[in-house]
Amino acid sequence: MGSVQTVAVFGAYGHTGRFVVAELVERGFVPVPAGRDADKLKALAHETGLEARVASVDDALSLDRALAGTAAVINCAGPFASTTAPVIEAALRAGIPYLDVAAELEANLDTFAHFADLARDARAVIVPAMAFFGGLGDLLVTAAMGDWTGADEAHIAYGLSSWHPTAGTRLSGSVSRERRGEGRLRYAGGEWEHRTDAPPTLDWPFPEPMGPRSVIGEFTMADVVTVPSHLAVPDVTTYMTVEAVRDIADPGTPAPVAADEHGRSDQAFVIDAVVRSGTAERRAVARGRDIYAVTAPLVVEALDRVLTGRTEAVGVASAGEMFDAPDFLRALAPHITLDPRP
Ligand SMILES: NC(=O)c1ccc[n+]([C@@H]2O[C@H](COP(=O)([O-])OP(=O)(O)OC[C@H]3O[C@@H](n4cnc5c(N)ncnc54)[C@H](OP(=O)(O)O)[C@@H]3O)[C@@H](O)[C@H]2O)c1
Questions:
Q1: First-to-last CA distance in the chain?
Q2: Which of 15, 31, 49, 83 would bridge 77 by S-S if both were Cys, CB 3.0 to 4.6 A apart?
Q3: Distance (Å, rounded) from C-alpha 102 to C-alpha 75?
Q4: What is the reported pLDDT for 1?
Q5: What pLDDT does 3 receive?
Q6: 3-state secondary structure of 201
Q7: What pLDDT is recorded for position 42?
Q8: Which residues line ligand 1 (CB under 6 A)?
Q9: Whole-number pLDDT of residue 133
């Protein structure tokens, strides 16, 4: 990086936004914290010594002011149903790249549907779901594919030791459920299917030391948007360990608590990504700690690649399409351990 670059972080004082601000500083960027609450922003500015800018999605001018002079914007403000479109529009007006950490399927689908043409015509870079859910699974599936140009199925199984959700996760989940109506979505035969039956429960053979665990199948996460957005895979399914599903379903489960010097909780994760073509199977496994904290190195690595021209697409593209997936994954050490090392 030649000169110091400023990067707007919308939703900077949220749980994930704070990890992103810290990671930007760690990597030599100058974050510009932005958000709608002047008091919370002021407290963050005081704590970090950064210049903060108040901005609201209801006021386009305030967003323009927040993004003025910045090299890119990272949107960490969810529910994304309300924030994605106004912040993308502001990024397009400013002529800067946009990345978000949205895990809401509907918001991610909207980004592709509403902005693909506009962004391609403007030669803009928009990376939705550049986070633990949506981004990392897509990178693993893309890396596991290797020289395959298509596969019959992709499966992404999440083994979380626990899931203590933030307020933003809970709110985003309820907005998604409201938007989708009764039931759930799955992606099969190259199409979205709305289902009202209960999702299946099955055993997933996570690699050791976790071993086989009970998971909820068709627990549809953002990867089911990102993977088929660029790979010819008609069946994409995500799975979640039952303990984690129980945690987020319980309104009494507490928010995550810092357990190390980086502010990470003690939550451990393993992601087992498997692609199948006929009888052949390929796999990529990632392990790490704290799904919120690890989102920061993911989105900041993506930002760095966008700002240094290490991209493979323009317009709206998910992590696996926008970046060289094996190279990106290698760059995530020591935050993520990979097996096999791509
Ligand atoms: N894909 C993934 O793996 C991944 C990983 C981490 C987080 N996320 C998503 O990121 C979002 C934030 O999560 P979090 O853990 O940081 O939650 P959080 O601690 O509750 O923070 C939410 C942030 O969003 C802001 N916000 C919400 N609605 C807003 C709006 N309409 N306008 C402006 N700001 C708004 C909040 O500001 P106020 O305090 O002013 O409301 C706050 O700064 C959630 O949607 C979560 O699902 C996804």
A1: 25
A2: 83
A3: 8
A4: 43
A5: 73
A6: strand
A7: 97
A8: 11, 13-17, 35-37, 40, 57, 76-80, 82-83, 101, 103, 129, 131-134, 166-169, 172, 222, 291-292, 295
A9: 98
Look up residue 250 and give its two tokens. 């319980």
Whose C-alpha lies nearest to ligand 1, atom 42? 14
Question: Rounded distance, CA 25 to CA 36, Å?
Answer: 22
| Residues of the chain with confidence (pLDDT) below 50 | 1
CB neighbour class for 42 (10 Å; exposed up to 12, middle 13-18, buried from 19): middle
Q: Which amino acid is at 256?
A: P
Strands 30-35 and 53-54: parallel
Q: Is the dihedral of CA 177, 179, 181, 183 positive or negative?
A: negative
**Token representation of residue 310:** 């290490």
Asked if residues 28 and 3 have their Cβ atoms less than 8 Å apart, the reply is no
pLDDT at position 209: 84
**Ligand 1: distance of its center to the CA of 288 in Å?**
22
pLDDT tens profile 205-246 = 999 888 999 999 999 999 999 999 999 999 999 999 999 999
Best mutation site among 101, 164, 225, 298 for ligand 1 pocket (most ligand atoms within 8 Å of CB): 101
pTM of the model: 0.98
Find the length of the chain. Answer: 342
Closest to 105 in 3D by CA, of 269, 318, 255: 318
SS3 241: strand
d(CA 182, CA 176): 11
What is the four-CA torsion angle of 145, 146, 147, 148, rounded to 10 degrees? -10
Rounded CA-CA distance 57/10 in Å is 10
Number of C-beta neighbours around residue 209 at 10 A: 7
Residues 6 or more apart whose Cβ sits within 8 Å of residue 108? 80, 102, 128, 129, 134, 222, 225, 226
Question: Helix (H, G, I), strand (E, B), or coil: what is residue 286?
Answer: strand
**What totals of helices (H) and strands (E) does the chain contain, helices first?**
12, 16
